[in-house]
Design a protein that fits this description.
By secondary structure, the chain is α/β, with parallel strands linked by helices. The protein has helices at residues 11-22, 38-41, 60-66, 82-87, 89-109, 143-162, 187-196, 216-228, 247-258, 282-288, 296-309; strands at 2-6, 26-31, 50-54, 72-75, 114-117, 119-120, 166-167, 169-171, 173-175, 202-204, 210-211, 213-215, 237-239, 245-246, 265-267. The strands form 5 sheets. The chain has a 6-stranded parallel β-sheet with strand order 3-2-1-4-5-7, with helices on both faces. It has a 3-stranded parallel β-sheet with strand order 6-8-13. Helix 2 links the parallel strand 2 and strand 3.
Length: 333
């Protein structure tokens, strides 16, 4: 197959590139390196069936050219930071809404067999009940969430208006190797970074707030099920582990696995922080037979092991974001 992965140098996208390159498929990675990291895909550059394009999903000419003869699209490229969306709403809507429309329009015109769009449970916003199912109101108050709502619903409109085969998983928190240790939702990565530097993890409030974490390899397995299914699914479906994890317990688990003599430090709670997050995932189980197989503890062990040995054995404060100097951007904002 010929596959396009937008945002393919990012956390999840790089795993998809890796999987299908090793599978013998021809993989095109389209990334402008706003969030992506060349280190995630550098090992793939040696393979003739891997192609890296430094470009932007808002560049219609580039997207139309890139998607010729593509069989399926994994669309993950996005402006993913909540804080940045508040500071730069225009940029966020431009990438997440217009960029997604550019991908969908090219797929429609070129009659591409399948598009899988990465949505997010962030669109539910201020949760009214848990576990959160697909019927929960979309209450997200910030530009990131509302931009993802617009793109999520746009995919539904293209499904119904043009009969396109578009699958829209709404993901909860995902963790694992290659995840950046910065930003909201990256508590596991941030805790690991601090603990491996012999610094105590910082807990906002009492630490009894809960989150639903899924290991990245389980997410890759879901993508493979979605790519190979013949089902055309009306509307979206939630993807989460269905396991509720207390933040304080996660911090203590990381300390234990890392073998450190540390205690979490509690600081002032975040204003209006959600107390519970648990995702109802029965629909994705019924539709595709998917369920997580890697427990949070197993995932933590793998993640900490990777973090210790990454970058030639050195543990750094932050994984560098390396932009390939040999390529010029294909889009100027």
């Amino acid at each position: 197959m010929r596959l396009l992965v937008t945002g393919g140098a990012g956390f999840i996208g790089s795993y998809l590139c890796e999987k299908y390159v090793m599978n013998g498929d021809h993989v095109i990675c389209l990334d402008n390196f706003m969030n992506g990291n060349l280190l995630n895909i550098r090992h793939l550059l040696q393979y003739p069936n891997f192609e890296l394009i430094n470009g932007d999903i808002r560049n219609e000419e580039l997207v139309n050219k890139t998607m010729i003869d593509i069989d399926a699209v994994f669309h993950l490229a996005a402006q993913i930071h909540v804080d940045r969306s508040v500071l730069e709403p225009k940029l966020t809507y431009s990438i997440n809404v217009f960029g997604t429309q550019t991908i969908l329009e090219a797929a429609r015109k070129l009659d591409i067999e399948k598009v899988i769009y990465a949505s997010t449970c962030e669109i539910y916003g201020n949760y009214e009940y848990v576990p959160i199912d697909e019927q929960h109101p979309l209450n997200c108050p910030h530009p990131y969430g509302t931009s993802k709502i617009a793109a999520d619903r746009m995919c539904k409109s293209y499904f119904h208006s043009y009969g396109m085969n578009i699958l829209v998983p709404r993901f909860g928190n995902i963790f694992g190797p290659r995840q950046k240790d910065a930003g909201y939702g990256a508590a596991i990565a941030i805790f690991t970074n601090r603990v491996l530097h012999n610094k105590p993890p910082l807990i906002y409030g009492d630490g009894l707030q809960t989150r639903d974490y899924t290991y990245v390899k389980d997410i890759v397995r879901l993508y493979d099920l979605l790519l190979n299914t013949n089902k055309k699914v009306d509307d979206t479906f939630n993807v989460g582990s269905g396991w509720e994890n207390r933040i304080l317990d996660l911090a203590n688990q990381i300390i234990k696995i890392a073998g450190k003599d540390l205690e979490p430090v509690h600081v002032e709670p975040r204003i209006n922080e959600l107390r519970r997050l648990l995702i109802e995932n029965s629909r994705v189980r019924e539709l595709f037979g998917w369920e997580p197989t890697i427990t949070v503890e197993e995932g933590l062990e793998q993640y900490i092991s990777w973090y210790r040995t990454s970058h030639m054995g050195e543990i750094t404060d932050e994984i560098p974001n390396i932009r390939p100097k040999c390529l010029e951007p294909s889009f100027a904002s």
